[in-house]
Write a structure and sequence with these properties.
Layout: H1 2-15, H2 18-31, E1 46-48, E2 51-53, E3 57-59, H3 70-75, E4 80-86, E5 99-102, E6 107-110, H4 119-132, E7 141-146, H5 155-166, E8 172-176, H6 191-212, E9 217-221, H7 227-239, E10 244-247, E11 269-272, H8 276-290, E12 296-299, H9 305-314, E13 318-321, H10 323-328, H11 331-347, H12 360-365
Parallel strand pairs: 3-4, 3-13, 4-7, 7-8, 8-9, 9-10, 10-12, 12-13
Antiparallel strand pairs: 1-2, 5-6, 6-11
Helix pairs in contact: 1-2, 5-6, 6-7, 7-8, 8-9, 9-11
The structure holds flavin mononucleotide.
Residues 60-62, 65, 84-85, 99, 108, 110, 112, 145, 176, 179, 220, 249-250, 271-272, 275, 299-302, 321-324 line the site of flavin mononucleotide.
Length: 370
C-alpha cells in the first residue's frame, strides 16, 4: 500500500513547486485510506522519556505544522509523529518562494519562518484526537513542537503559554529555539537566556501536571552551535532537568561539497543528505556531554537504512526524518525498519539499546566535517 502510494504520488509531487507539493502531500494523507500497518517487530520497541515507542523512526517537525494528519502518519508506519512548530497566534511566515529542493544533492533549503495556523486551530484538532484516545500515548505517540511568534513582545511567555495549553494533549513537548528563520530566535540558546527559558518552561510543565501528568519536555538545538556554546546548553539542560534533546535543526552553513551551487545561495536552513555528517558530529558531541542523564533524538540527513544506523550509533535513542521523505517517499520508513532489524539479526541482539552511542567517542575524535 505504501509502495503504491509512493509510486502514484512521487512523480506528481516532484513535478510541482516544492511548497505546492507539500500541500498536496498533506491533502493526500488526509484523504488516502491508509490501512492500519502490520504490528512492528517487538525488537524495534523502545522505551524513552517514559513512553513506549513501537519503533524508533519518527517524522520530524515541519511536515505537519498544523497537526492535520498525525494519525495518517502513524498509519504510514512511523513510531511517533512530531507536529508543529505551532506558534500562539496565526502567522504567514516569509514570502514565497521560501522552499527549495537541491535535487543534485538530495538536500532542501527552507526559510518558511514558522508559517502557522496558530494554537487555536492546532489545539482543536489535537483535542478531538486526544478525546478519541484518552491517554495520548495509547493512541500513538504525538509530540508537539512549539515556537514563539515573530512579532511577540515576550518570547519566553509564548513558550510558557503553549506548554500550559498543549501539555494535556501532547505525548511530549519540544521547545524549538533553533529555527534559523525567525530573527533572534536562536539567541535563546545563549546561556543566560536559556536558563531563564528552561526554568520558566519547567515551572509551566509543573503547573500543567495535575491536569496533564508529567509531560516530557525536550529541547531542539541547532547543529551550528560552537562547542563551548554546546557545553553551556547541555549544562543548563542538565541542571534544569530537561527530559531530552533533539539534535538537531537545519544548518545555515553550506558544505563545500554541494553541487547545486546556485540554489545553495538561497537564504535559509539546509537539511537532507548534505546535513548528515555535521548533524551526526553534533549529536555525538552532545551524547558525550550528556553522559546518559537523558536520551537524545537524532535528526538531520537520514535518507537510508544505513544513515539511520549511523545516527543511532552516534548517540540517538530515537531518530526523525523529513527531507529524506521528499526524495525517497514513505518507503524510506519501511527500509529503515528493515535495516535496523537486519542489524539486530547480524549481532544476535534482541533490542536496539546496544547500538545507541556505540560510535559516539570515535565520531568526536574524527576531523571536523566540512
Ligand atoms: C520544509 C521544512 C520545514 C521545517 N519546519 C520545521 C519546524 O517548523 N520546526 C522545527 O523544529 N523543525 C523544522 N524543520 C527541521 C526538521 O524538523 C529537521 O530537524 C531537519 O530538517 C533535519 O532533518 P532532515 O535532514 O531529515 O530533514 C523543517 C525542515 C524542513 C525541510
Amino acid at each position: 500500500m505504501i509502495g503504491l502510494f509512493d509510486a502514484l504520488a512521487r512523480p506528481i509531487l516532484h513535478a510541482l513547486d516544492p511548497e505546492d507539493a507539500h500541500r498536496l502531500a498533506i491533502r493526500l494523507l488526509k484523504f488516502a485510506p491508509l490501512p492500519r500497518p502490520a504490528r512492528d517487530d517487538a525488537r524495534l520497541a523502545m522505551r524513552v522519556f517514559g513512553l513506549d515507542f513501537p519503533n524508533p523512526v519518527g517524522i520530524a517537525a515541519g511536515f505537519d505544522k498544523n497537526a492535520e494528519v498525525p494519525d495518517a502518519l502513524l498509519r504510514a508506519g512511523f513510531g511517533f509523529v512530531e507536529v508543529g512548530t505551532i506558534t500562539p497566534l496565526p502567522q504567514d511566515g516569509n514570502p514565497r518562494p521560501r522552499l527549495f529542493r537541491l535535487d543534485a544533492d538530495a538536500g532542501v533549503i527552507n526559510r518558511l519562518g514558522f508559517n502557522s495556523q496558530g494554537a487555536d486551530a492546532a489545539f482543536r484538532r489535537l483535542a478531538s484526537r486526544a478525546h478519541s484516545h484518552p491517554a495520548p500515548a495509547s493512541g500513538g505517540i504525538v509530540g508537539i513542537n512549539i515556537g514563539a511568534n515573530k512579532d511577540t513582545s515576550d518570547r519566553i511567555a509564548d513558550y510558557v503559554a503553549l506548554i500550559e495549553r498543549f501539555a494535556p494533549v501532547a505525548s511530549y513537548i519540544t521547545i524549538n529555539i533553533s529555527s534559523p528563520n525567525t530573527p533572534g530566535l536562536r539567541n535563546l540558546q545563549q546561556a543566560a537566556a536559556l536558563d531563564d527559558l528552561l526554568s520558566r518552561v519547567i515551572d509551566a510543565r509543573e503547573r500543567a501536571a495535575p491536569n496533564a501528568g508529567r509531560t516530557p519536555v525536550l529541547l531542539k538545538i541547532a547543529p551550528d552551535l560552537s562547542l563551548p556554546d554546546l557545553d553551556d546548553v547541555v549544562g543548563i539542560a542538565r541542571s534544569r532537568r530537561i527530559d531530552g534533546m533533539i539534535v538537531g535543526n537545519t544548518t545555515v552553513t553550506r558544505p563545500a561539497s554541494l553541487r547545486d551551487s546556485a540554489t545553495a545561495k538561497q537564504a535559509g536552513g539546509l537539511s537532507g543528505a548534505p546535513l548528515l555528517a555535521l548533524a551526526n558530529r553534533m549529536l555525538a558531541e552532545t551524547y558525550v556531554r550528556v553522559e546518559g542523564v537523558f536520551p537524545l533524538i537524532g535528526a538531520g540527513g537520514i535518507d537510508s537504512g544505513n544513515a539511520a544506523l549511523q545516527k543511532m550509533r552516534a548517540g540517538a535513542s530515537l531518530i526523525q526524518i523529513y527531507s529524506g521523505l521528499v526524495f525517497r517517499g514513505l518507503g524510506l520508513v519501511v527500509e529503515i525498519k528493515r535495516a535496523l532489524l537486519a542489524e539486530l539479526q547480524r549481532d544476535g541482539r534482541d533490542t536496539l539499546n546496544g547500538l545507541i552511542g556505540a560510535d559516539a567517542a570515535s565520531t568526536t575524535a574524527a576531523p571536523w566535517p566540512h
